[in-house]
Structure formats: structure tokens, C-alpha cells
Amino acid sequence: MTEVAREGADTVVADDANQATADTSGQAVIVAFGQTMKTLRVRAGLEREEFGRRIGYSASTVASYEQGRRIPSPRTIERADEVLDAGGLLTVWKEQVERAQYPVRFRGMAKLEKECVELLMYDALIVNGLLQTEEYMRALLGMRRPPLTQETIDQRVTARLARQDIFDRQPAPLLGFVMTEAVLRQRYGGKGVLRGQLEYLLLIGQKRNVEMQIMPLDCEDNAGVNGPFTIVTRKDGNKFVYSEAHAISSLVADPEQTVLAAARYGIIRSQALSPRESSQFVEKLLGEL
């Protein structure tokens, strides 16, 4: 990953030029974990079918884990370690395997999500990943060019769904979402997928730690014209600004830039509909489908 050093700044930029190498490294971790799990299973004298039954998966899924074609969840790794009486030889891999499931350009942000006390997000292209239904995720990933393999799509869906545990975390972080009306009108995957997505937004919007706002198309002022971004506040009070454009991401910790981004987000929030008005707006869009 390329580090761009500036006076008073801490900026990390990830792009396609180095992503291939990092992704290869991530795949190596997944393969090594799979080989370790297979070795422990064979040592325990368990066939794939019996082992799979004990951890709640089919023999074919176990084979996918062992061959590095699928990434197990942290809970699956814990259960496998228990069933194989591995004494922590598998659970020690949890953090590395979890990190490997994300595209390299998102790994820093994924770590910050787990440590945050506040996330403020502005989206103008697609529904934020934390708010996406599985059907919406698959529709988006299926449209990528060059095409992603089915296994890659499955891995990224699993990783994205796992991130949504943030809604049930205790203590609950404060989550703010502002998105443009255009995001909610784009029928990625078809009318049925969009309907399910809008219904899910209404459900999540009811959570007490979530504020969801819509920026209508007829709004004449929008301070978010520079594009989508996310502001992360960590438990220690440090703030970061994350943004993506095409295949390039940026994670900035420069205090001046984070303060400006927070101010910009405040203006965007004031220009958008209120959370109550936004819920009514989403209900209206549902009625039009």
C-alpha cells in the first residue's frame, strides 16, 4: 500500500497498482488456514461429512474452506477449533482470515468500523454497504467489470453482511446516513430488489442509534457535490475520513481535513430532509413501485 506523506497529514491511498499483490497475500492466508484446518481434521480422524455436521456445514462447504475457496466466519473458526480440540491453533487465525475477506482498499476502513463510536456517511451512487440487503449486494457485485468470480462474490457478500453486526454492538455506536434520492431510485437488480432494499432502510431507520436522511433531487443546494465520504470517530477521539473513487480509496487522519469534512457533513445534513421526513419519503417511493 502506498503511503503519501504530507506535513501534518496521515494519508493512505490504495489503488489497483498494488491491490493485486495485497490480494494475493490475502489469498495465501486463506489457503494456509484451510490447509491447517484440514491437517487438524485428518489428525482427529474425522471425514469431511462428519466434521461438517458437527460445525453445521455440508462436506462440500468444508472442502471449500480447506481449499481456500471460501472464507469461514469467526464463529465458524471458533467452532472448528472446539470440535477439533485444536487448543487455539485455528482461532489464532481469526483476525488474519477476517481481514483477508475484504478488498485491500477497504481493510483499513473495516478495522476502524470495529473501533468506532461514530460513523457519518454520505452516499450519492449506491446504498451504503452497511445498509444493503443481500439481494442488493449480489446485484451490485454481479455488475462489476471485469466480472468477479462467483466465489469472490460469495466471499464479499459474507464479509459485507458480517459488517452489519455494527447495528447490534454494545455499546451502540452513533450512525448517521445521508443519501441522495437518486440512490433510492436506481433499480439495481430489478424492482423486487429495490423494494426489499427500501423496506430494509425503513426497518434500520427505526433504530435509536441510527439517523437516516434523504437529499431530494429538487434540493437546490448540496454541499456533497464532491462525492461520497465517511467520517469515522474512534474511541480515543481520533477522526478519519474515508472515500473511494473508481478503484482507488483514501483514508485520511489529518486533523485539518477531518474537521473540514465534519463541517461539510453538518452542512449536508442540514440541507437534507429530516429523519422523519426521510422515512415518509422512502414510504412514498415504495408506494410508487
TrEMBL record:
The protein's superkingdom reads: Bacteria
Q: Which SMART domains match?
A: HTH_XRE (SM00530)
Q: Which residues form the HTH cro/C1-type domain?
A: 37-90
Q: Which PROSITE patterns match?
A: HTH_CROC1
Q: Which residues form a coiled coil?
A: none
Q: Which Gene3D superfamilies match?
A: lambda repressor-like DNA-binding domains
Official protein name in the record: Helix-turn-helix transcriptional regulator
Species of origin: Streptomyces lancefieldiae
